[in-house]
Amino acid sequence: xxxxLVSFIRDIKKNTKLSDEDAAVIAASKVVDAQPKSRIWYRIxxxxxxxxxxxxxxxxxxxTKLKEVYDAINENEELPNIDYPDSDSSKAILEFHASSAxxxxxxxxxxxxxxxxGNRSNTVKVKVETIDGSATxxxxxxxxxxxxxxxxxxxxxEVGITIVDDNQWEPDEEFFLKLSLLGGEETSSKExxxxxxxIMEIMILNxxxxxxxxxxxxxxxxxxxxxxxxxSVIRQNGADGDVEVxxxxxxxxxxxxxxxxxxxxxxxxxxxxxxxxxxIPIVNDLEPERDENxxxxxxxxxxxxxxxxxxxxxxxxxxxxxxxxxMSKLLLMTNANVDxxxxxxxxxxxxxxxxxxxxxxxxxxxxxxxxxxxxxTFGFKLIFALIPPPGMAGGWLCFVVSLLMIGLLVIxxxxxxxxxxxxxGLKPEVTAITFVALGTSLPDTFASKTAAVNExxxxxxxxxxxxxxxxxxxxxxxxxxxxxxxxxAVKDPEKGFxxxxxxxxxxxxxxxxCAVIALCILVLRRFVAAFGNAELGGNVVLKYASGAIxxxxxLFYVIMSSxxxxxxxxxxx
Length: 573
Description:
Blueprint: H1 2-15, H2 20-34, H3 39-51, H4 64-75, E1 92-96, E2 100-104, E3 109-118, E4 124-131, E5 145-150, E6 156-162, E7 173-181, E8 192-194, E9 199-205, E10 212-215, E11 219-223, E12 228-236, E13 243-251, E14 264-269, E15 273-281, E16 292-301, E17 306-307, E18 312-318, H5 323-340, H6 348-356, H7 368-384, H8 396-424, H9 428-454, H10 459-475, H11 478-491, H12 504-527, H13 540-565
Parallel strand pairs: 1-8, 2-9, 10-17, 11-18
Antiparallel strand pairs: 1-3, 2-15, 3-6, 4-5, 4-7, 7-9, 10-12, 12-15, 13-14, 13-16, 16-18
Helix pairs in contact: 1-2, 2-5, 3-9, 3-10, 8-9, 9-10, 9-13, 12-13
């Protein structure tokens, strides 16, 4: 449903601060999770997780923080406003407090503020240096070339700038301060980045007035997808003292809270600063609409300063022409992520590629365990990749050849299990209920665990195990015994097909008792409130107690059956 998918992506972008790539991953995961899943889907997923194959579980394609966002979205159908850090949240962002400042020639030394935001947990360094403009080093100001060190949780540093006062008349002159990251191991680009205001203009003035404040332009044009609209307020004809400028937004066709987040605010100019920006967040609803506008007005200034002629400016929010291309890009990325979580391949080439590379080619999310298991199972992967793809002949060719390959593998595993049991001194019956049963049931265990985590109900988690055992018993025994019975009925009708029961009666009896107890516990958990009225989860203590009982039942069955096989207990049974 393309319309529903577009709506979901739009809601994600409106309510979270996710990048396009992360939004596409979440949308793809939602598509996969929304599809009905069979028990074989979970078994395939568990098997691939075990052998380092391509993952089909959406959670395996997400980072830890992205999983938290996805879980929050699933818990709240109306999509909460999630404070998800942007792609640079792990970096310290360094910049000047203002983009420009003006000082009197006789000021001597004044302080410039360097600010740090973003990640504050580490120690970072930044270099500050002066650059000539119309004012020159030595004649109008003293050179600055120093390194600032921000300790953990330190957000501000001051740099002293010395102005040279001479007795000659000069027009207003300017020079610049520049921030730059250090090379080498001092502060790498992985730890810090420069903000928007990494270069600051210093104007040397010849008066001591507080100045006149006004907007830089009468009108501003911003795109709906710009994020924040930065509206510049400039200070002219003086820059003496700290001044506060009060401003407010005025709704026109654009409405506060719907199209932008405005209201009222105060812009603080420190002594000598000549330009500051008002930041107005623009709401991007990802819906095509007409151009809208609102106004910002400078209401009042302090410390005897004055308002200039441009004390009101219009901000026009233009319809984003990139809307269709943005949505097309997101849909393409979503489809690519959905394709990365597909269960089957359409061609032999795809199957061989998935078999030959770890994690199906997704090396970024591959773990050490994936590499180890890929190495150990590489031969089996390559052999089974030769099975015809499910897309051929409606899947029947794949089904038949898979059964033949599985049958061949069962013969090999069965013989190897008997040889192993013989080597370590175990009877075939004990080998069958321990090593062979454990190996064949391990994928079902992980499949049930995955289903328990992802599914709203416990059906698939319980059904994985019971369904697998049903197939093992009814088909795994039924079909071979049927074939053998027909064979011996034709070859030797008088003798027929005979299988010695051995300890089967005792083993089945113990298994039945344990199974009945397990079913009783599941029923009890559903109807008793202390367990949370659910087969899975609930009270922590009772949850682990139930798991411990199930584990004990398995050990009890294995131990009792083994003791009987060796004639230690119930020898006459």
